[in-house]
Write a structure and sequence with these properties.
single chain, alpha/beta, BCA_ABC_TP_C, transport, transmembrane, membrane
């Protein structure tokens, strides 16, 4: 009898096997090309491979992490310089060791260049990286590559010394780089890159360091650039600075944007274009520098349209796949409608009874004392104090502008200038960052969409959980909250569904306290009530306390055992639900707030 986990295990094995199969097929194809191509085209093919590896690196820092880096060929120059130096010094290990060392050295330089990315974005970061490329270019012209003045050629790896052999070697390197990138993109690093590109606040709120995400993206991107440069050094054997100019880095960036280089096959396609376009211009008698103009025009089109070539192809494929999925869902609905006996009857009461408040025992899950937030002369929060009992669902309500969102930002660490004391269990949070608070067990969701659409539901849930979870655990929490299947792309679902996935992912993380900031926004009234029914079960089922910030009083009534009301930044009332809602001061505060009635 097969083990219960044999299905997920088989699925994981297939996900692991197919990229290996593609890589092996690519290596076989490379060998056939190395035998069949003429000598000149073999040289061009090596150039395409080196460019593809450099573009693959750009796909990480630019396509996945969303940062502008205009110095990729500078990292390539670092790799080529290290390979040339090790060649002159005859460092043991041969070309393969030198190539790896060049990649590592470039990765270190990438971290140093990436440090400004911790504070800079957009054009400012582009200027910094382009300035670095220009400064390095001037330096390289002065120092030159080791061995270039003496005419000492870089020795190629043993057994691959011929042009055909070296092309086959470069294909093997490309296959290895592709596999590494594939696994990184589908691991925690890859999810953090895509998350930080979409929302830095959302990334920090799930316990992922934004700084680490950015620096790892720069490091991996630069290391791939260094490997590309090391391969180029072995190809030409006497590298010169003219192969690594800032203008070429700029053109490579544009080509990466145009092709959609965060997709591995599109990075390879970009490398082919890097060689193909100038070669065609040469054959047509057009100066090859016009290739930069063509790349620029294609890049402008990609930036203005918001869709690159690779993403356009993917969208067509996914549209067909989503159509098949939608048809399958409609069929399932029709089958369910045809067999009503299999459907559970609806609940008799439209509004469940108010949940009982948990007995006060032990320390509270969250305690806040004297929390004050001031923006200039405005006190957004004024001496706010409250306690959230363990295993409870507390509602935080109040008129618009009462300070509810400010409270959530302050508690979760996004307002470091807030004064007062916040304790999670027995731990004082003090000046801890949002990342540290999340890792200690204080999680939150957002009013705005902070769920990166570049991920699948499964990848996002695992990323947010920050612990090793099984496929069964993921499927269970998604089913519990009525979310789409794990393999669904988040880009293909509506905002309301993404909010449900955000709640499910944070619940699976099993924090001590979960702050839900209007989680039902974008859902219908019926979906509100369904979500409420699920939230009522969360404390006992997953072992956490919830603070619910919500405008829909129907949802608040069905979920929250206790309420705290804010008005003009101060606590207006706090206690059991029925007492608070009957308080004349609370009723007066909501006069005219029709959306709360």
């Amino acid at each position: 009898m097969p083990h219960a986990d044999s299905g997920p295990a088989r699925s994981r094995a297939l996900r692991l096997a197919w990229p290996l199969g593609v890589a092996v097929a690519g290596v076989v194809a490379g060998y056939l090309l190395s035998v069949g191509l003429s000598g000149y085209f073999v040289f061009l093919a090596v150039s395409a491979v080196t460019a593809a590896i450099a573009i693959l690196g750009l796909g990480i820092v630019t396509g996945s992490a969303g940062m502008i880096a205009l110095c990729q060929l500078t990292f390539a120059a670092v790799g080529a310089w290290v390979v040339s130096l090790f060649n002159v010094l005859e460092v043991p290990g041969g070309f393969v060791v030198w190539l790896i060392a060049g990649g590592l050295a470039a990765g270190v330089v990438g971290i140093l260049v990436g440090l400004p990315a911790l504070r800079l974005r957009g054009v400012n970061l582009a200027v910094v990286t382009l300035g670095f490329a220009a400064a390095f270019d001037v330096t390289l012209l002065q120092i030159q590559f080791p061995g270039s003045k003496d005419g000492i050629p870089v020795l190629r790896p043993e057994g691959f010394s011929t042009d055909r052999g070296y092309f086959f070697f470069s294909i093997i390197v490309l296959a290895v780089c592709g596999l590494v990138v594939f696994w990184l993109q589908r691991g925690r690093w890859g999810s953090s890159w895509k998350a930080v590109a979409f929302s830095e606040r959302g990334t920090a709120s799930v316990g992922q360091s934004v700084q680490q995400a950015k620096l790892t993206a720069f490091a991996v991107s630069a290391a791939l650039g260094g490997i590309s440069g090391g391969l180029l050094a072995g190809q030409v054997q006497l590298p010169f600075a003219s192969s690594f100019t800032p203008l070429q880095s700029l053109a490579l960036y544009v080509l990466a944007v145009m092709s959609g280089a965060y997709l591995i096959d599109m990075a390879i396609f970009g490398g082919i274009l890097w060689v193909l376009v100038p070669e065609l211009l040469k054959r047509w008698g057009v100066p090859q520098d016009w290739g930069f103009v063509i790349f620029g025009a294609l890049g402008v089109q990609a930036l203005t349209s918001g869709t690159n070539l690779g993403q356009g192809i993917r969208n067509l494929w996914w549209k067909r796949a989503d159509g098949r999925t939608a048809a399958a869902r409609e069929t399932a609905k029709a089958d369910a409608a045809a067999h009503p006996a299999a459907v559970e009857p609806p609940a008799e009461a439209s509004v469940p009874p108010v949940p009982a408040a948990p007995a006060a025992s032990g320390e509270p899950a969250l305690s806040v004392t004297g929390l004050t937030v001031q923006f200039g002369a405005l006190k957004a929060l004024d001496d706010v104090s409250l306690e959230v009992p363990a295993g409870s669902v507390m509602g935080l309500i109040g008129p618009n502008g009462a300070g509810k969102s400010t409270f959530v930002d302050a508690i979760s660490g996004f307002l470091p200038h807030a004064s007062g004391t916040v304790r999670l269990g027995g731990t004082a949070l003090g000046r801890m960052s949002p990342t540290k608070r999340a890792r200690l067990g204080l999680r939150r969701t957002f009013q705005q969409d902070r769920v990166p659409p570049a991920l699948t539901v499964d990848a996002y849930v695992r990323f947010v959980a920050r612990r090793r979870v099984t496929a069964d655990e993921v499927a269970e929490v998604l089913d519990f909250f009525g979310c789409p299947p794990a393999r669904t792309r988040l880009a293909g679902v509506d905002v309301g569904t993404r909010r449900l996935v955000e709640v499910a992912a944070n619940v699976l993380a099993k924090p001590r306290v979960l702050l839900l900031d209007e989680p039902a926004a974008g859902l219908s009234h019926e979906e509100h009530l369904e979500l409420g029914a699920r939230l009522r079960e969360v404390p006992a089922r997953y072992g956490m306390a919830i603070v619910l910030i919500e405008h829909d009083l129907d949802l608040v009534r069905t979920v929250c055992s206790t309420l705290t009301v804010l008005d003009f930044g101060r606590v207006l009332a706090s206690g059991p639900q029925d007492e608070v809602l009957a308080d004349p001061a609370v009723i007066k505060a909501y006069m005219g707030e029709t959306e709360m009635l």
